[in-house]
Known about the structure:
Elements: H1 10-16, E1 25-29, H2 33-45, E2 50-55, E3 59-61, H3 76-79, E4 80-82, H4 84-89, E5 92-96, E6 99-103, E7 108-111, E8 114-117, E9 120-123, E10 128-129, H5 146-158, E11 162-168, H6 181-196, E12 203-209, H7 220-233, E13 236-239, E14 243-247, E15 250-253, E16 256-259, E17 262-266, E18 269-270, E19 288-289, E20 302-304, E21 309-310, H8 321-340, E22 352-357, E23 362-367, E24 372-378, H9 379-394
Parallel strand pairs: 1-2, 1-9, 2-5, 9-20, 11-12, 11-17, 12-13, 19-21
Antiparallel strand pairs: 3-4, 6-7, 7-8, 10-18, 14-15, 15-16, 22-23, 23-24
Helix pairs in contact: 2-8
Amino acid sequence: MGPPGRPKGSCRRAQREGTPVSTHRITVLGAGFGALSTIRALRRLDRTSQITLVAPRAELHYLPGIIWIPSGLRRREDLVVPLGPFLERERVHFVAAEVTGLSDDGRTVRTTAGDQPDDALVIATGGRFIKKLPGIDHAITPCEGIAAAERIRDRLAAMDGGTIAIGFAGNPNEPSAVRGGPMFEFLFGIDRQLRREGRRQRFELVFFNPSTEPGNRLGPKTVKYLLAEMARRGIRTHLGHKLVRFEADRVVTEGGEFGADLILFMPGMTGNAWFDATTLPRSPGGLVRADGQCRVPGFERVYVVGDSGSFPGPDWMPKQAHMADLQAAAAAKNLLADLAGRPSDEGFAVELICIVDALDRGTLVWRTPRRNLLLPTGRLFHWAKRAFERRYLQAYR
């Protein structure tokens, strides 16, 4: 028997007329790279399921582009993409809400707009930065969003000189929950920006990190290259000392302290606060546990992709858009296979690929379990990064 109000036989007529008939209810949480890539992958494979996206806003914020905001190469409007047209094209129902929890073993999502039932669920709400270091409010965390990059832009414009300290740290219980790449880009980008403006000589740049090998997930060769590049640019380093606290005008570590007029700091990541209101299995670092097929153990038809998840694999597995895209493709295939009663054994490749940009040139880093490639600085890579941004966003505009 069809749903109330639908004439008998209308399903068959709709199929003959080419109108998709809704079957399963799939809910995707988040509006970042992992969530949107999951939707695209689902729709490539299945045109009939009802897909619901739950996120605070129907917008994609393209955070890789915030490295260019301080120099004026990018503005807010360049990086915020309204998702209305994309969601309409893909026939996705949007719920503007914050997620507050789960019930019924994932078959109901609790949100600030009410309960959302589902037959399958994909968690892609990203991660949360660990803000436990004393005095961290004195630092700007760039990847918190576009507003943070705008603060950096405005602070730089107002400074006549001084010391700029730039660094990052990780989650000691989750080796992969760190995002250091953008901090190298802010470091080299600000250096280049100040040189362009003819005022680099009035500033001291200091890079700090509790490790003696910052960025080691990019590979040993890359670490040596980055440190050599800092030395070549006259950037001072303060490495290998645990951070103690930030003050309004200084960075304090167990190995000493130094003055700073502007502090940019990226802490390690952990899971979203709403995870605490669930019985989802968690990693030691607070992320949602996943298997090699992006399934959440112990929860039927619940998947996780991107920064929200802790996945089996090498400790250098990146937290970046490309990795989230690979996981999303696997999750979509496995989810649909589960709904159809077929084997769901699709895995994902582990691959780190990034261009460390320096405002007008870049360095390509590519790492797989078998290879680690570093191609030194060139203008081509800067333009390749810009071209990738344009191509990536075209899918959502």
